[in-house]
Structure formats: C-alpha cells, structure tokens
Amino acid sequence: MAATPLEALLDLDSLLTAEDLELRTMVRQFGEQRLRPHIAEWFEKGEVPVRDLAQEIGKLGLLGMHLKGYGCSGSTATAYGLVCQELEAVDSGLRSLVSVQGSLAMFAIHHWGSEEQREQWLPGMAAGDLIGCFGLTEPDYGSNPGGMRTTARRDGSDWVLNGSKMWITNASIADVAIVWARSKEGVIGFAVPTSTPGFTAREMTHKMSLRASVTSEFTLDDVRLPEDARLPGAQGLKGPLACLSEARFGIVFGAVGAARDCLETTLAYVGTREVFDKPLSAYQLTQAKIADMAVELGKAQLLALHLGRLKDTDRIKPEQVSVGKLNNVREAIKIARQCRTLLGANGITLEYPVIRHANNLESVLTYEGTSEVHQLVIAEALTGVSAFR
C-alpha cells in the first residue's frame, strides 16, 4: 500500500523496514475493511463486539505482539507502535483494546508473573480467547496510585482482597483482572480470575468519549486467592508503573494515527467542498491551517519513530515516553479540533470521523498520565527536583 500524501511529505516510509511496511499495510487493510465500516455505529450505540474482535486481532498476531514466547511473536517496539497507530486511525477504543490486553494485562503477567501464571494465561490472551483487564485506578486515586485503598491481607496461606477500581477497560467482560493492592509488604499485584467469588464488575455508561470501548468499574468483596495468584516479581509501585510506561508508548504512536485520519479526511473534504464558487482548499487560510497541521503531524511521527528505535535498543527512559505522550496527544487533539472547523457543520456528524476522534482524544489526553503528570515527570528529569508533593 502506497504512502499517503501526509506520509510522503517527509518521506517517512524511508525510515521503516520492509517488515514494518508490510505489517502496517496488513493492519491498515484490516482496519479499512473490517473495522471502519462499523465504527461509527459502534461509537453511536456505545457497543463493540470485543470478544469477536479480540479473536480476529489475535489471529493476526497483534495481541502481546511485542512480548516473547507463550504465543506472542516478539516483534519490535516500533512494529507494535505502528500497529497502535493504524488501529487508532480507525478509533482510539480499538487501539485501547490491544494496548490494555498486551501492554497492561499481558505485560504484567509476562514481566512480573510466575512461569505457571504465564503458561496459564498468556497463550489464551495472545489468541484473543481470554480477555484481561488492569485494575490500578480507583475512584479517588487516579494520578496518585500510591494512595490506593484496595487492600490485600494474609489469611493463613491465602490472600483476601477488598476494594474497588474504576475506569477499567474491559473489566466487565474480562476473564482475568490484574489487581494492584496495598499490603503490609507494600503494593503488590495479583492475577485474579474474574469468576472468583466476591469479584463483581459493571459497565460504565453515559460516556461521550471512547464509546467503542468497554469501560467498567469492579469491586472486591473479601475475594480469597491462593498464594499462587500473586505476581511474585512485582513489589511496590514499580510494578504497575512499568506496565503503564509500556501502554503509554503505544499511545505515542496511536495519537498520530488519530490525527492523521482527521487530516486525511479534511484534505479530501476541502478539495471538493465549494465555498464562494471555488474549493475550500483554494483559500489561503485553509492552506495555512493544513500546512501547520501537517508539520505538527510529521514532527509527532518522527518523535514516535525515534522513541521506537530507543525502545528497540533498550535505551528508552520513562521521561522520554512522557515527552512522546505529552506532545503527540496534545498535538493530535489540536489537529482534530482544527479539522473540525474546516468541515463546518459536517464536522460534528459521525458521517466523518473527526468529532469522534476529537472526543476520544479528550480521554487519551488524561488517561495513563494526564498532561500535567507528564510535565512534572519531564521537569523532574531536567531539574532533579520532584514537584509531585
């Protein structure tokens, strides 16, 4: 598949390998043929066939694709980023399905779990037969996970969990929940089968963003687990924060996909929409807006690719991921809003993807670290002084 005019502007494809381009083409075609025809309806109804999609995406080898073994292909970080980009070009909720499954739930088990846990869960999750969720955020503790109230206490050889988690993707349909809780030993993690007595989840409705994604809250009421449900490698907030860094990396690329789709849609629209007897694209104000957006999009793509290469060589740092997340989501939402103005009244309908992307990016802007949190991470790396407290 040939590069789009936006990709050709800076010859971005020259920075990708043949394998990268082949994978991008495959996922882009899957998005155009399987996902895009239905996405407006899924968004409008607030319903998405997650289990069916997970199995289809699993057959493509995209779930946990950057992990090694247990049914995972062990791809490069850059390749994984490109997949996130193509999925979010269709909808942020679809990228979220892949990143929550692979970079949060599967990564937690792969990185912090026991060999038995990896064998139990990862092959089914890679295939899309099992759905995972990641329970860190609580009703009163989003940006400050260290204040979590969910507790884990020992009772003989078992653990007993109590608490609640909120804004959890796929919790109400998940087979396994990665749950982080406070204990005498500090923050620890568990792989909790959602069929365990005392685990209840409900879908959160009335959303105006990420409507093509299942968002849930769940409660733990004396959930009793054996010792082998604990993730033995995770101790302290380092465990969940490492998982979040993995997922944030996917957002760095994903936001570029959403912005690109908005701008490509707008380029097509202004070329055919006539205003005062000539195409909207023929006006200097329109061209200035398009040029500025294309420049910011190209810079965001270059930043994403640079971070991908750093990650592929094990040199990436959390503050660098914060730079990517802060910049690329911030610029993507600006592009979506600007594109909306160029589409006029058509910009608010689901016949075009722009308002849907703009609404979704409002969530992407704040989840997995608000812009303010990432500003503080970056500034701490530069000044050596933490301003979180």
Automatic annotation (TrEMBL):
Its cofactor is FAD. Residues 235-382 form the Acyl-CoA dehydrogenase/oxidase C-terminal domain. Residues 133-223 form the Acyl-CoA oxidase/dehydrogenase middle domain. InterPro entries: Acyl-CoA_Oxase/DH_mid-dom (IPR006091), Acyl-CoA_Oxase/DH_mid-dom_sf (IPR046373), AcylCo_DH-like_C (IPR036250), AcylCo_DH/oxidase_C (IPR009075), AcylCoA_DH/ox_N (IPR013786), AcylCoA_DH/ox_N_sf (IPR037069), AcylCoA_DH/oxidase_NM_dom_sf (IPR009100), Glutaryl-CoA_DH_mitochondrial (IPR052033). Residues 17-129 form the Acyl-CoA dehydrogenase/oxidase N-terminal domain. Signal peptide: none annotated. It holds the Pfam family Acyl-CoA_dh_N. Keywords: FAD, Flavoprotein, Oxidoreductase, Transit peptide. Belongs to the acyl-CoA dehydrogenase family. This is Acyl-CoA dehydrogenase family protein.
